[in-house]
Amino acid sequence: MATNISPICFIPFLIFLLFGALVQAIPTNNHGTDGSNIASRSIKVDLKTNPNYVPNGVAAYAHALKKWSSKTPGELAESLAAMGGSMFGELGATSVKGDREFLSSVGFGTPFQFLDVYLDTGSSDVWVYSSLTQAEDVGNHSTWVIAHSKTATPVENGTWIVQYSDGSAAYGKVFTDSINLGDVIIDKATIEAAISVSDEFISDEDIDGIFGLAYSLPNRASPQQPTVMSALLPLLSQPLFTIDLRHNSSNGAYTFGYIDGTRFLSDSGEHVHYTPLANGSTFWQFEFVSVHIGGTNDVHNDSFSAIADTGTSLMLLHSEVAKLYYDAVPGAQYNYTTSGGIWTYPCHTLPALPDFELGFANGFVVTVPGRYMNYSVFPYAEDTCVGGLQVIPDDDPQILGDVFLKSVYAVFDAGEAQIGFAKKDLD
Ligand SMILES: *[C@@H]1O[C@H](CO)[C@@H](O)[C@H](O)[C@H]1NC(C)=O
Ligand SMILES: *[C@@H]1O[C@H](CO)[C@@H](O)[C@H](O)[C@H]1NC(C)=O
Ligand SMILES: *[C@@H]1O[C@H](CO)[C@@H](O)[C@H](O)[C@H]1NC(C)=O
Ligand SMILES: *[C@@H]1O[C@H](CO)[C@@H](O)[C@H](O)[C@H]1NC(C)=O
Ligand SMILES: *[C@@H]1O[C@H](CO)[C@@H](O)[C@H](O)[C@H]1NC(C)=O
Ligand SMILES: *[C@@H]1O[C@H](CO)[C@@H](O)[C@H](O)[C@H]1NC(C)=O
Ligand SMILES: *[C@@H]1O[C@H](CO)[C@@H](O)[C@H](O)[C@H]1NC(C)=O
After folding, report:
1. Which domains can be identified in the chain, with CATH numbers?
2. Is the CB of 416 inside a 6 Å radius of any atom of ligand 4?
3. pTM (2 d.p.)
4. Is residue 255 over pLDDT 90?
5. Which residues belong to the signal peptide in this entry (predicted)?
6. pLDDT confidence band for 82 (50 / 70 / 90)
């Protein structure tokens, strides 16, 4: 674990044993639109009445242009440059394997070679399967063929090795090349080409790489290279990105450089509620102050700290909070083993799992609906299910993974060092 970069290195081993790559990070495609939507879409934008919603006219207009206009990319680039030159874009996120992963299609090299990667707010390396990856590790994964890119440049003596909190790992050589992230083009970005990856990645055929977006964490390239995140932020019309993961759906999206008021309930007066990041944090780490379960079991603590991590499927909270939740679940048990423990409950004797609510100092409350709290079946006991909330040791920061993030619209605002949440329609 010498190279471990994650805060979640002490997660009970059993969880990983059971689910392998599932607990660690993950995220596809832009969805085409047909002209018939233009009218209704424009009307919706015009009717926006939320007094708290501050539209970014230039970004919104340019976004609409990109989406709807018949201009060629070159003409668009000219129009956008005339409007200030900054970039923004949208990238689809598709749920696979029951929300275990959310995949996005990102372009690498010139011309762009598109690979399915997951965007991981809990790490900083951007690595992909490549033409350097040894044949036995490649399997059916798509690879970045370095020789097919006119702009790929090796970093002299550049190597990288990453180990994630679940024990999965990868290493390889370092290059610089162009990246297309939802139409935001990052030139000379640090791209880590895999030579070898661990079994967790080999067996996960959906993922061709990981795209780290941690707040300000260095990557694992040697000699040290700038992170893609640090190269991305100055290019954006606003130094932020947003996440709208969607349960069991391909309609999720990341936006870069702008907040998409159509992805949360801005029409109903809802707005983004911000919480500052913890001072000195290299992760997207912040405080929450209370937990409410089923409207009855409450716990308050002014200094609960958590990291928002798309790279973790579950919510990993301290034992006291997890116990409080499962106290409200009939038949729930903490199944101890020599290597750790896991909260389970009978799959079918419940009417429904209770909602899980998390409160912030700004007064905002995020509700994770009970149906999102039922994570999977427990393979080692009959009619037993595993909850989407599990325990992390009290000394470690708590992790709010995809179970939490898919319940909200989230703004990762690097410029103001804050994270914001807003209510959205859930499926
Ligand atoms: C690749 O996919 C094919 C068809 O889905 C499957 O039969 C084969 O086992 C896969 N190969 C590997 C190495 O996983
Ligand atoms: C790369 O490695 C070689 C051989 O070890 C060394 O001579 C050279 O100075 C290194 N270059 C850089 C930029 O570190
Ligand atoms: C996911 O969506 C598919 C089709 O939209 C549906 O058949 C399936 O039951 C859904 N699964 C869950 C877990 O909601
Ligand atoms: C960070 O430090 C400043 C100055 O000490 C303090 O005012 C601010 O409240 C701190 N922010 C957080 C989120 O702790
Ligand atoms: C509040 O939470 C922090 C961090 O989780 C913990 O260290 C502290 O003991 C808690 N305080 C109380 C009174 O529970
Ligand atoms: C785990 O807990 C469930 C109750 O949630 C129980 O029915 C099951 O027998 C336990 N399994 C093991 C392996 O301990
Ligand atoms: C939880 O999900 C499993 C399938 O993953 C399903 O069989 C079970 O009925 C669900 N239980 C609850 C309480 O939603």
Report:
1. 3-255 (2.40.70.10), 262-422 (2.40.70.10)
2. no
3. 0.84
4. yes
5. 1-25
6. low
